[in-house]
């Protein structure tokens, strides 16, 4: 796991509808916060969501959310990213 990924003590600003089971902060600055969150909904269905929040005043506002519901969705996502990754990095640079 990347050493930049750190767990944090404060609860990510996820809707109270969800129960946060675990979370990993990806990046946080003065105005932006991104994290991966394992949560369950009112129906106790677990999912993993990628969140991006923007701070407005003293409140964190969700800007983006992407949810993975099962292993098939995860594997499909990983395969797609792996196919595109060589096009992101230039030869000899990462």
What does this structure look like?
With 94 residues, this protein is of the alpha+beta class. The protein has one domain: Nuclear Transport Factor 2, Chain: A (Roll), CATH 3.10.450. The protein has one helix and four strands; from the N terminus they run E-E-E-E-H. The chain has one helix at residues 71-88, and strands at 19-28, 32-40, 46-56, 59-68. Strands 1-2-3-4 form a four-stranded antiparallel beta sheet.
Short description:
The chain has 94 residues and is α+β, with helices and mostly antiparallel strands.
For the terminal residues, how far apart are their CA atoms? Answer: 17 Å
N-to-C order of helices and strands: EEEEH
How much helix is in the residues? 10-25%
CATH C-level class:
Alpha Beta
Write the CATH fold name: Nuclear Transport Factor 2, Chain: A
Mean pLDDT: 88
| Whole-number total of structural domains | 1
Q: Largest sheet, order of strands side by side?
A: 1-2-3-4
- Principal-axes shape call: flat
Residue stretches low in confidence (pLDDT < 50, at least 5 long) are 1-8
Report on the biggest sheet. 4 strands, antiparallel
Q: What's the total number of strands?
A: 4
Fraction in beta strands: 35-45%
Q: How many H/I helices? A: 1
Rounded Rg: 15 Å
Secondary structure class reads alpha+beta
